[in-house]
Amino acid sequence: MERQVDATFGYLSPDDIGLFTDRYELTMLRGYRETEHTPRGTFSLFFRSLPTNRGYVIAAGLEQAIAYLRDLTFGEDQLAHLREEGFPDSFLEYLADFEFTGDVRAVPEGTAVFPNEPLLEVTAPIDQAQLFETLLINQIGFQSLIATKAARMRDTVRRHGDEQTIVDFGSRRAHGTDAGLKAARGAYVGGVDGTSNEAAGNQFDIPVFGTMAHSWVQSFPSERAAFEAFVDVYGEESVLLVDTYDTVAGAKTAVEVARETDVDVRGVRLDSGDLAALSQDVREILPSEMDIFVSSGVDEFFLREFFADGGIADGFGPGTSLTTSKDAPTLDPVYKLVAVEEDGKMQPSMKLSEGKVTYPGGKSVRRSTADGTLQRDVIAGTDEDVGGEELLVDVVQDGDLVYEFPTLDEIRERTLATLGKLPADVRAIEDPAEYSVEISDTLTATAERVQSDLRQEMDL
Fold it and tell me: pTM value?
């Protein structure tokens, strides 16, 4: 029998989202139901340490995470799969009617966050809250990782250049179609100006940019003929790729074509060679109104060296390094139980595992600012008043959305404003300074008490 090709391209329908979970989550969910052990629990999503050379992380991915959480269903095909996997009909009947009825608090997208600070907390019957571990880590962890990488590039341009355009060119190098789409969104949250990917532009209303490929130039009898044909179609919007054969000669040809056709060609793109040196040579050739766009190997480290070497550009196109966060490819977030209902009251809970201790209880994160600069954060219990601005906001209550999601442009502006408030040494792209994050005295005392109680109970 001929194998049928799957044409879904990896996109998950609401019916499929329920299965985007690890088996042990469904195993525990069934166990909770059959033992009638469904107290409310609070789970906290956070990371324990910063990735390589990161002084901060930009929170992203919340809107998709919440949409999946609220829209999740188990369709007939998905239930049939679980039946084949050995789950009983009584459990499948529960899943068929699954609905999230809990609460979610979260840090708004575009906010800088630091180790041990919850990006999101879920409080719900424990069987419901447990189910979302894989999904929430996947959505928030990945987009936050890419938003942070993009923010570092935007910040480097701000430090060394002006406000040059940065466009995500990386969807072809992303780890799958969904990753390419979410990377484009995360990158826009982090401060890039647009994407080359039309699907991302359509789905998220991100500005879309494009130039031409070397294949266009190679397919014509000459570079000049290729440029003339492109300008004939695209006129003043034309950006001509000038490095197919010789960058300097290509730039001269681009200028000649613009002059001969009497078209104000928008600019040229450089994609190979010593880009800083070539950009200087090309700038001397081009009229002032023609832009230089640079791609190939672009990241924050490239940008720093490009400007240090006197490079001149009006825009950049990062690809692989952006959509894979090549130098630090994981944020390594976790989703841990921090409180469990007992006798109608939420009681703090924590792990004692070596190297993986968590702070117990629901959290409050308070941020203090002085003279427009972030000074410190304090992680406290939800009922503590330790001053500063509360970062976590109510997003879902009793299963209902109570938060008005900002537009993607508004989120991007929050990121840019946040970067302007972070101390310069915390924003350094290598060996950044550590931002001050304190644990409140009350939370510290609670952690010590819970640890002591657990050790006594376990006779440790």
Answer: 0.95
